[in-house]
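Write out a record, focusing on structure:
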Amino acid sequence: MKITFLGATHEVTGSCYYLEGAGKKFLVDYGMEQGQDIYENKPIPVNASELDFVLLTHAHMDHSGNLPLLYAKGFRGPVYATNATCHLCDIMLRDSAHIQEFEAEWRNRKAKRQGKEEYKPVYTMEDALNVLKCFSRCDYERVYNICDGVKVKFVDAGHLLGSASIEVWITEGETEKKIVFSGDIGNMHQPLIKDPEYIHDADYVVMESTYGDRSHGERPDYVSILADIINDTFDRGGNLVIPSFAVGRTQEMLYFIRQIKAEDRVPGHPGFKVYVDSPLANEATTIFSEHVYDCFDEEAMALIRKGINPIAFPGLRTSITSDDSKAINFDDEPKVIISASGMCDAGRIKHHLKHNLWNEDSTILFVGYQATGTLGRSLIEGAEEVKLFGESIHVAAKIVQMPGISGHADVNGLLDWIDAFGSTPKRVFVTHGEDTVTELFASRLREEKGLSASAPFSGTVFDLAENSFVFEATGVRVEKKVGMTPKAQRAAAMFQKLLAVGQRLISVIRKNEGTPNKDLDRFAREIQSLCDKWDRTDI
């Protein structure tokens, strides 16, 4: 009866835990590592084909994104997740597979010219579609007997539609141990979805610590702030452009705007239009609407009972095709444009920035975290000029950032969550946080709460029956590439940005299947012309 910590150890992404118990071998989460990679992760200690099942906390890529890879390596067991998580993964894993395949196509064009070996994608669309067939849908608050000796319960974590903390009971002979995996614990009073449910007993707890060193502060009045921004922008005659993450944040923005319209908070511009220009976001919005009864909070349900859709309203327009997207910028009326990606590094948002950044009457509103090195980060840090599609664009639009929006509990929310355990767990394992944050939060649990707490590194093995470490790993840092000059590093970073744009292109191509032949022919000729221009034969 053992747990091995593999991912999201002293790091925020790549969540993965391997367990052995009751004669079974299984994972909790199998996520992608995203952003800066500091520590090496140990591989799963058995062949993927030997795993009996997977338990999945939620659909975000840093928890689910490597499941198609697991299938490609031979896994054929069930993946247990909540109904909404299964539904969201159906669109998110397919979207991820598009990206993987395009990156392989891009790399192989160059590799073929240089006589290098073929680069294979991390996984394919076929892998994604096949692993999706393995998903088994579970209800909240129901105990499932997965097999002899293992039972589980999914509890609403309040982080994302369908997100869950998972209670796992493992029984061997006369010994039963309960281990709770927090997943990502949600922020309190988020729009639409319920607050996190508390769990009250466990032998062991594995908990996240993303914001384990800071508080979000007082919750802002998002509706009033957003209404003021819309009024100010429209009175100047400009557009409000909102770069937004397709799943979660976009739906929250629609929730706020519905209230703004219902309360007539933009009186000078009745019936103003709101465009959601992201096929993935539009699919996700449909999924949100299909899970009102199992995931929506009481405030949203009160609207449902009145016959009101909390994320729909008069003037809402959805954009699916590229022609739909282009047409938005030929509409001269002031409007709200919500588009992906949230950090502005790829996707349709870049076209809307090109048409609005130079306009001093327009506003660009950021409603999520902007990572270092992204276009979004450059804009909020005061860039006066940016390059879009090879053209230098002067930044004259008003740049605004919405304060305090986060899907994660802050340090106070994390402490409230662990305080709910009435009987003291034998040990708390702190994961899913930045290097120093995991240690700081574990220390706080020891000193302030009197808990036995630690922050394991990847490869650490703990015996749940004996309450003791089998092996305590130390952090092995990822070796940095040596010999790269600053210029070469900048070039490599720029090439990665180019790849990201290319990944978006293949996604757009696939989503245009079924478009009239004359439009597809024009699209193909435009791409061919671009390829002819940039097809390098001198490298």
Notes: Residues 486-534 form one domain. The longest helix spans residues 83-114.
